[in-house]
Write a structure and sequence with these properties.
By secondary structure, the chain is α/β, with parallel strands linked by helices. It has ten helices and ten strands. Helix content is 39%, strand content 19%.
Length: 269
């Protein structure tokens, strides 16, 4: 069998595996994507078939390889100031009414390579000068978390960042780093990233939050997994705190603990 070929039965095994691990529904249309991303792992381990690779993963002796598979199959499309109305809402509606005292905290729960978390950091730095604030980012992919912690991006990724913020919070690369920019150390010091699987109870010691962003990830979950994920996150949200999802998503019928204040924005009861 060619290493680039996969049978329907083999693909079904991987569909069930990624669903079990990450709650992701991998549609039949993703077969080509799976083959393209995983066949390099077959070559790496000198395996002749996807069945052999599946048996290797299922044996439980290679957790690091299981993580590599998750990294390769999870989609991480993101950019700075994506869906800007959400950031306007935080600035105009949430911050002026924030709880007195304490640290204002936001969780970017599917942070990917960090653009959302750093967007929030720019927003809070600009609007909470002199006040305590903190951003936490998390993702199931260790690979994207490494990139997020570095805060180092190709220059073309800066689209969407207001020019004043670009000057204030980003450092333009020179010489060998030309064509890139780095989020300022001051901003990076206020953002921490954690490896968290949202389909499991959150055991990481990350505290509670005033706002949770969970955008453009639930489109990959079925209803049962959506309920499970929201149920895992809600205990981490302060009463009256906000839960923000992507514009193509809804929480209708998913949780009784939230009420909608406007499309894609919910508040904890």
């Amino acid at each position: 069998m060619s290493q680039s070929a996969i049978t329907d039965q083999e693909f079904a095994l991987f569909q069930r595996l990624i669903y079990k691990i990450a709650g992701i529904n991998l549609s039949d249309a993703k077969k080509v994507l799976l083959v393209g991303r995983l066949q390099k792992r077959l070559r790496h381990h000198m395996l002749d078939s996807f069945s052999e690779y599946y048996r290797m993963l299922s044996a439980g002796k290679h957790p690091e390889e299981l993580q590599i598979m998750v990294d390769l199959l999870t989609t991480n499309e993101t950019y700075f100031f994506r869906e800007p109305k959400h950031f306007d809402f935080v600035r105009d509606e949430v911050l002026p009414k924030r709880r007195a005292g304490g640290t204002f905290r936001v969780w970017s729960a599917a942070s990917s390579t960090g653009e959302e978390a750093y967007t929030l950091a720019m927003l809070l730095s600009e609007n909470l000068s002199g006040s305590a604030w903190e951003i936490v980012g998390s993702d199931i992919s260790t690979q994207v978390l490494e990139k997020a912690r570095r805060g180092h991006y190709p220059m073309e990724r800066n689209e969407g960042i207001p020019p004043a913020f670009l000057t204030k919070y980003c450092r333009k690369g020179v010489r060998s780093q030309a064509g890139t920019f780095l989020i300022s150390s001051e901003l990076r010091s206020r953002v921490s990233f954690h490896h968290i699987n949202l389909t499991l109870p959150v055991e990481a010691d990350i505290g509670k939050f005033d706002v949770i962003f969970l955008r453009n990830v639930m489109i990959y979950f079925d209803m049962e997994t959506k309920r499970k994920v929201v149920g895992n996150l809600l205990p981490r949200l302060h009463p009256g705190g906000y839960f923000i999802i992507g514009h193509s998503e809804t929480l209708n019928g998913i949780s009784d603990g939230l009420h909608q204040v406007r499309p894609t924005i919910y508040q904890k009861d």
